Structure formats: C-alpha cells, structure tokens
Amino acid sequence: MEVNWVIPGPETVVNTEEIALESNKILSVESRAPALEVRDWVHGEALASFQLDRVYVLEFCGTSCGTCEEAMRGLIELQETYKGRGLEVVAVAAHESAASADEARAQLRAWLAQFKKLNFRVAFDDTGAMDTLWMEPSFSVEIPQAFVVDRDGYIAFIGNPYKLHGVLPQVLGGTWRTSAQAQAAERERIAEGEPKARKKALRNQVKAKFAAAEKIEDWKTALAAIEEGVVLDPDNLLFRQQHVHLLLHKMHDMQTGLPLLRQLIRDGINTNYKMMLETAFFELFDPAHDYSQFPSVERFAMGKELSEHILAQARLQDDYDRAVSYLMVAWYYHASGKKDRAVELLELALQPLDGPGPDGLKDDLLQTLADYKREK
Cα separation of 370 and 208, whole Å? Predict the structure, then answer.
C-alpha cells in the first residue's frame, strides 16, 4: 500500500533533500535511529526510546494495507523465535484513514483483535511525526515497511519485512550492518526507492494544487493542475477520474471530456480493471450528478457497452461484489427507461445478502428498489 505524506507547498521544487529530514539527512543503513514520537500505544507497554544491547524491528503497518495482516503474523513468529536473543518488535500504524483520531484508534484496535497471539508493542500515530522521522527520509513510500535497529542504536536494515528472516540472525549476531551484502542491498533499495519517493512527492503537489483550486471552484486552475498530474503519471486512475469529472461535471466541456471518458471505458474493459470500470460507470450514471447537458445517445451507448461487460463479470464475483455490480447497472437501466430490468437486478442483488452489512449496501439496495417501484 502506497502512503501519503505532507510535502512542501505547490510552488516548491522537490528534490532528494526536500523529501528527507529538515536537516537534509537521508535515513539509511548506518544512520542513527530516529526518535519514537507516537500519539499513544494501543498494545503493550509504552517505549520511550530504544535501549542499547537490544535489537528492534520497527514496522509500519495499517488496517487498509492488503499485505499487512500477513506481515503482522510474520512479526509474531519472529518475536517468538528470537525473544531469547534480545529482539523487540514494535509495530506503528501511522496511516489510518478515519474521521477522527478516536475512530482511527478504535479501527486499529478492532483490526488487532484478530491476532490472538500478539506478542509485541503496537503504536498509533496520526501526527505525521513518525512519517517525517522515518518514512520520508528513507524514501519509503509503501507499507508494510520494516526498519531494524541494532544493539548500538544504528539502522541495520530498511525494507520489505519478508526479508527479515534472512537478515535478523545476522543482525542479532552483529555481522550484518557493515557487511558487503548489507551495503549492496541498501544501494539497491535507495536506487529503487528514491525515484518513487520523488514521483510520489510530485503527485502530492498536484493533489494539493488541485484541492486548493477545487475548494474555491477555480476550475481553470484545477484543470491545469490535474493535466499536470496526468502528464506526470498517465496511469494514475485518480488523476484520470478527476480529469474526466472536472471536464464533464464542473466545466461541462463535452467535446474534450467525452473522448477521455470513452478511453477510460476502453481501458477498463480491455484490462478488466474493476475499479476503472466502476469509476467510468459513476461518471455516466451516478444519481447524484446532473446529466442534462450530456448528449443522451452517446451516454447510453457507452452505458450499454459498460453494463454488458460488468454483468458478464458479475457472474464470477461473490455475493457482495455482484450486488454492487447489479446496483450500478440498475442505474443504467433506470436512466434509459428500462425500469422493470432495473427492479429485477436490484431484487437479484438482495436475495443472497444477509443483514445490513458494514457499509450500508443492503440499505442502499432497498431504498433504490423502493424508489423505483414507487415510480412504476
């Protein structure tokens, strides 16, 4: 999972030093370990600082990270295996998305409950301090990300936690940090990570410029920002979606926006990229949008092609994803006047669902179905 961080203002030129600490010091193997500055500790006793003669694994993880669950189980195993040799594992959740710190903390605790044998400290930080001290200056852009601090208080390893099984025995034995193998691995990591971090920072600058312009409804400036983002990262779905949405729904520039939407649909169908398909569909049929200025013939032609593909793929999905697909396609049939078909799809979507669900999908299906039946 790629993570976001606070970056310099929109007019600042980003370079390696600006991505690193304010002191312009890059964090790498053989650097002194930074401080532990977290909001609080949600599991285990608080740890104020690293103690000499102990080896620490500090891992950044998060509840929305697809591979973090497996990484946490790996940490439990490592802590158990090496506890007698002075290993202390610490996990830090610094990238939780929630409406408030309390909700983020509760979300984290609920996620941790699945690990019945959790045997190490877990910290929560929503201040950005840990990113500033650890992730940014080391060119780390994805989680899970592991840092190993050796018995002398120096960084001995930075990288994917799945590499720890091979690295930790050598760190614990005092042979890793200054080895040729460690230096070669670190050079490779920086060579790969630095361009990613720089590109990430530039993307965040684009997002900051776009958000500032969007807030004051300066669509011309917003368009310039998002076009900059598309040039920087042509495959970024968020930039492509914002580009299409801005042109079609804010600036009502159909001549420019519709070809971009058609390309988005073609790319989604050709790659069968579920999120891209849904993004394109929402631009065409989200009930929250005003389509009075859309050319209806073209809109429904694109909708038909997209709906047929989504329905074909829905046969391969589980009940929840199929229900989401049927709800979307029902919007198309309803908008195109085929209300019986829309009702049929909603009823099919509801059949296997048991209970309201955590995100209100069943409630949305029931409400939409009631609205459509009332119209009939």
Answer: 40
- Among left, alpha and beta (phi > 0; psi -120 to 50; other), residue 37 is beta
**In b/e form, how buried is each residue of 112-142, taking b as 16+ CB within 10 angstroms?**
beebeebebbbbbbbeebbbbbbbbbbbbbb
Query: CA-based diameter of the chain, in Å?
Result: 76
Q: Which residues of the chain have pLDDT under 70?
A: 1-24, 355-359, 376
Where b means 16+ CB within 10 Å and e means fewer, 70-107 reads ebbebbbebbeebeeeebbbbbbbbbbeeeeeeebbeb
- Angle (CA) 177 181 186, round 5°: 70
pLDDT at 2: 53
Determine the pLDDT at residue 341: 96
Taking CA 353 as the corner, what is the angle to CA 347 and CA 357, rounded to the nearest 5 degrees? 120
pLDDT at residue 66, rounded to an integer: 84
Total residue length of the chain: 376
- Tell me, what's the pLDDT at 3? 53
**Sole residue written with tokens 């919007």:** 331
Q: Is 374 left (phi over 0), alpha (psi -120 to 50) or beta?
A: alpha
Amino acid at 278: E
pLDDT at 355: 63
Buried b (16+ CB within 10 A) or exposed e, 297-329: eebbebbeebbebbbebbeeeeeeebbbbbbbb
